[in-house]
Design a protein that fits this description.
The complex is a heterodimer.
Chain A: E1 3-10, E2 30-35, E3 38-44, H1 53-67, E4 73-81, H2 84-93, H3 95-105, E5 108-116, H4 119-129, H5 131-141, H6 147-176, E6 182-185, E7 192-201, H7 205-219, E8 224-231
Antiparallel strand pairs in A: 1-3, 1-4, 2-3, 5-7, 5-8, 6-7
Helix pairs in contact in A: 4-5, 4-6, 5-6
Chain B: H1 21-33, E1 42-43, H2 56-59, H3 63-83, H4 91-97, H5 117-124, H6 134-139
Classes of the chains: A alpha+beta, B mainly alpha.
């Protein structure tokens, strides 16, 4: 029977999992596989498991529950071992490595921040500040200039919008970086200008949250900040 | 999932599981694409999900996108010229010019793009669906009246 693996924890982790269930429909029962001073939280693997919303949420819920109790190494969604013995083998073979990571992440959690700014706001700023963009825009509006002029305007504006998003993202990340132990940025998509994960020590969590709340106030209500956390340290394992 | 309340809620981080589809979307990339990998284990197929990583900024460098931007400028200028020329926010320019300080007032007006349909669908019940790829989100962008995202 294949085994779905959620997390690696120290064996002395409280591992309270009452009322929490695993992936699958019906949800699989969670259990713990222990090897030396390490433990893995696993369940039977349902047939034909795919990344459905329900299952991704179940994976995240198990990890969130474990994080609330003590340190945890979250596995990426979808790890399948052939059986329990394969899990204990993996724990034994890489014990030193997992122990080091658990120690390094002890007392830390991940906060993930995304923030967006409506595109129209950026376009308005570009038109206001770039004489070239304004001139081309006027020309197009008055019926002069063909496709080439539109493409030139679009190219200029696209570059300006990207530059503004990049600057916005950098300023947000730099404002929070001093309060995090590590930062990992990823590409922001859509109207988002930042997508960043921060590894924050529990003792500095309040300071981090206060600073982020200040940023929300400073940027104003047209900006949409979405902060998630404390999360299992997915980005820092 | 834990979501820190935004907008002056103070430094309160709620613990515990729970979970909601709306906040799941934002952390999907973490759950699917980060986290520990144990190389001797196999991994569930994520066919159809990998598209999450599509980089929207790469798409920016295309003629279609340039035309879209040009048309957006044209439309924006017309609309703002007719309705409320004085309300064009000063904020963004100040911030990008000012580098890392980002001080500004919180009194902007204007259209706030509401969350995409994919979010709403997720929230309203399609919980058994696979998470929608980011590309879908890019495409469906209804303009909506100004409103703050629901928390």
């Amino acid at each position: 029977m294949a085994v779905y693996v959620y997390a690696i924890t120290p064996a002395d982790h409280p591992l309270r999992l009452d009322g929490v269930t695993g992936v699958g429909e019906p949800a699989e029962q969670l259990r713990v596989v222990t090897e030396g001073d390490l433990a893995a939280v696993v369940s039977d693997a349902p047939e034909g498991l795919r990344a459905k919303r329900r299952d991704v949420l179940a994976h995240q819920t198990v990890l969130q529950e474990l994080l609330g109790q003590a340190g945890v190494l979250p596995l990426r969604f979808g790890a399948l071992a052939p059986d329990d013995d394969a899990v204990t083998d993996a724990l034994r073979e890489r014990a030193a490595n997992y122990r080091d990571r658990l120690r390094a992440l002890d007392g830390c959690a991940e906060f993930h921040l995304k923030a967006s700014c409506p595109e129209d706001l950026l376009l308005a700023a570009v038109l206001r500040e770039s004489d070239d963009a304004r001139r081309m825009n006027e020309e197009i509006r008055s019926g002069h200039g063909g496709q080439d002029l539109k493409i030139s305007l679009g190219e200029l504006v696209a570059a300006e919008v990207t530059a503004r998003r990049t600057a916005l993202g950098a300023s947000v990340v730099e404002a929070l970086r001093p309060l995090a132990r590590e930062v990992r940025e990823s590409e922001a998509v859509g109207d988002d200008f930042v997508s960043a994960s921060f590894l924050v020590e529990r003792t500095r969590q309040n300071a981090f949250l206060e600073r982020e709340a200040e940023l929300v106030g400073e940027y104003g209500e047209d900006f949409d900040f979405r902060l998630h956390g404390p999360l299992p340290p997915y980005s820092f394992v | 999932m834990t979501v820190v309340p935004q907008g002056g809620g103070g430094p309160v981080a709620r613990g515990g599981g729970g979970g909601s589809s709306s906040s799941l979307y934002d952390v999907l990339e973490l759950i699917l694409d980060r986290g520990l990998v144990i190389d001797v284990f196999v991994r569930v197929s994520l066919v159809g999900i990998e598209i999450l990583k599509v980089d929207a900024r790469i798409v920016v460098a295309s003629v279609d996108t340039y035309l879209r931007f040009a048309e957006a400028c044209n439309r924006l200028d017309l609309e703002s010229g007719r309705k409320a020329p004085t309300q064009l926010p000063e904020l963004v320019g100040e911030m990008t010019e000012g580098g890392a300080r980002g001080k500004s007032k919180g009194a902007l007006t204007g259209a706030v793009e509401a969350f995409s349909d994919s979010f709403r669908k997720g929230r309203d019940g399609e919980r058994e669906e696979e998470p929608e790829p980011a590309e879908e989100r890019e495409r469906s962008r209804p303009r909506r009246p100004p409103r703050r995202r629901e928390e």
